Amino acid sequence: MPPIIANTTSPSLDSLVIDFDQHCLFDTLVAGMADLLETTAGVDDACAYVSSIAARLGSDIEKQYKTALGVQNLNRDQLLAALINLNKRADGAFFIIEEDEDHIVLGNCKCPLGNAVISHPSLCMLTSNIFGVMTANAVGYAAVDLEQTIARGAAACRVVLHLKRTELHPDTREYFRDDASAASN
Fold first, then answer.
1. Pairing between β-strand 157-162 and β-strand 141-148 as defined by DSSP bridges
2. What H or E segment, with its residue span, contains residue 106?
3. Tens digits of per-residue pLDDT, 106-140?
4. Tens digit of each residue's pLDDT (9 = 90 or more) over 34-75
5. Which of 115, 121, 133 has the alpha carbon at shortest distance from 47?
6. What is the dihedral of CA 24, 27, 30, 35, to 10 degrees?
7. For residues 17 and 51, what is the distance between their CA atoms, to the nearest angstrom?
8. pTM listed for this prediction
9. Nearest-CA neighbor of 98 among 149, 163, 153?
């Protein structure tokens, strides 16, 4: 068999239009894992798995913000700034819609998980748990309602952080200050 000789007039592979980059890899990997988990374990169990990972991530992120700010506990203003900053760093677009002493309503028009989140509601547990853990550790308690999500087909997300005990909806998730955060207050 004669040796294969490359065609020297072929375009450079770097110049080809190939729909693949780091974001595509990330979207495909995350969506594939969520799909596999939701299909084999069910959405409820997939939510539980993602919640477990996200709760640890929320604690780790909270520690980083507290260390960087030089505080033992985030106050409400620092918490809100951290939640918005965190999502900006992750390429999300969360913003405050309204707030009062009982709750904070956040909107988001760009999910940090990109297209991977579409039709994968278990991935919303990242938001619920990170926001819930950080909020509960800052104010003592949080309940998170994911009223609208991009994952479920909405154009934007609407997340309600309840800061005081309230009547819970079936999908509301409650969070309480962890012992380590309580000890540092």
1. antiparallel
2. strand 103-108
3. 999 999 998 889 999 999 999 999 999 999 999 99
4. 999 999 999 999 999 999 999 999 999 999 999 999 999 999
5. 121
6. -110
7. 38
8. 0.83
9. 163
